[in-house]
Design goal:
Structural class: alpha+beta
Number of strands: 16
CATH architecture of the largest domain: 3-Layer(aba) Sandwich
Largest sheet: 9 strands, mixed
Number of helices: 11
Length: 371
């Protein structure tokens, strides 16, 4: 991160921006406008997940820098300042807590976060110190100025919709709400060779039935996604009936009422399965994040900037825009990615599509300035 910050700082300065790094590690490049007043915020995150691709996050930072570079090259100043934000940690890989950079800017990074420990026993507070920040001054990272004009984030789609429609970019309508649970099914371990099938209380077969119920509920709604992404079986021996299974549940939908109803249906089905199979079940809510609607005004400007044929689509993934929405209106522009693949080394975009995104963002800045 230190190396990438050095490189991106150079690019920001080349584009005529003054640059500073805050305590949590965000880079903040500022391009002054022709008049004082509220800033427009552009950006995304520079980090990614382990064994990931090149574009999830960094693409949005680079498109924002390029849009400002064009202004600088033409000796043009918009009627408002622009701040390009390169967030330090959106994915939460090291400390298991997401949106660290944007949460700090929104004033939502607290003492509990600073006490988190990584795999090597290093606290987040110590990591911040080693990086040159001061964890005692994280409060100073919070946005201090006037309410911004808005926050616009460019991001790869991380899905197949734009590619299927043959479109290079699309405007995001909302970021889906998300509910996460940890579910434990408690059965009875026993010898795989001696316990008759009709006398078993197999935690794994019960959990498997719940997993299929998750899929069935999600399939009833075109915008719903629901995932069991992690499953642990105990005792985990080839000749032992599973006595305990713990698994995760992740449910997302751009409409909160739809998401909550789906969660209720899935959990009710899970309890019915447990009762019928004679096993115990425990449901632990992990997190619940409401859907975030994009600003109709910013969406309209992005659609105008993109021209005829541009579509609106929801985002099933979370983005820094989630926490930026607590500071100001948000808008997002998706860029087509090959096969909808993301969080994978095969993540890929076309240079021509990125050029379209830069053009759209440039026209958006012009329209906003005239509005």
């Amino acid at each position: 991160m230190r190396r990438v910050n050095e490189v991106v700082t150079g690019w920001m300065r080349d584009a005529g921006m003054t640059v500073r790094r805050d305590h949590v590690g965000n880079l903040r490049g500022r391009y002054e406008g022709s008049a004082p007043g509220p800033s427009l915020l552009l950006g995304s995150h520079l980090d990614s997940v382990r064994d990931a691709g090149k574009y999830d996050g960094p693409l949005g930072v680079l498109v924002a820098i390029e849009a400002v570079q064009r202004l600088h090259d033409h000796h043009t100043r918009p009627p408002f300042p622009i701040e390009v934000l390169a967030f330090a940690d959106e994915e939460g890989l090291r400390f298991g807590a997401t949106y660290l950079g944007s949460r700090a800017l929104a004033g939502r990074l607290g003492e509990d976060d600073l006490r988190r420990i990584d795999a090597d026993g290093v606290t987040m507070a110590d990591a911040i110190r080693r990086f040159g920040g001061d964890p005692a001054k994280i409060v100073e990272d919070r946005w201090q100025g006037e309410r911004p004009l808005g926050y616009v984030e460019v991001h790869i789609e991380q899905g197949p919709v734009l590619e299927s429609l043959g479109l290079p970019v699309g405007v995001v309508s909302a970021i889906a709400g998300q509910s996460r649970f940890e579910i434990t099914v408690a059965g009875e371990a026993g010898h795989a060779g001696t316990v008759p099938m009709d006398r078993r209380h197999d935690a794994l077969t019960a959990a498997s039935e719940v997993v299929l119920a998750v899929e069935a509920v999600a399939n009833r709604n075109a915008q719903m996604v629901a995932t069991v992404g992690k499953l642990a079986v105990e005792p985990g021996a080839a000749n032992v009936i599973p006595g305990r299974v713990t698994f995760t549940l992740d449910v997302r939908h751009p409409d909160d009422a739809e998401r909550q109803e789906a969660c209720k249906t899935i959990l009710s089905s899970a309890r019915d399965v447990a009762s019928r199979r004679g096993v115990g079940i425990e449901v632990r809510p992990v997190s619940d994040r409401a859907a975030v609607a994009c600003s109709p005004r910013l969406m309209a400007l992005l659609l105008d900037a993109g021209g005829p044929g541009l579509i609106q689509l929801p985002s099933g993934a979370g983005h820094d825009a989630v926490f930026m929405s607590e500071l100001t209106d948000i808008g997002m522009l998706f860029v087509r990615c090959k096969g909808g693949v993301s969080h994978n080394p095969a993540e890929s975009v076309e240079a021509a599509d990125v050029a379209v995104a830069v053009d759209v963002l440039g026209r958006f800045l012009d329209l906003l300035g005239k509005g």
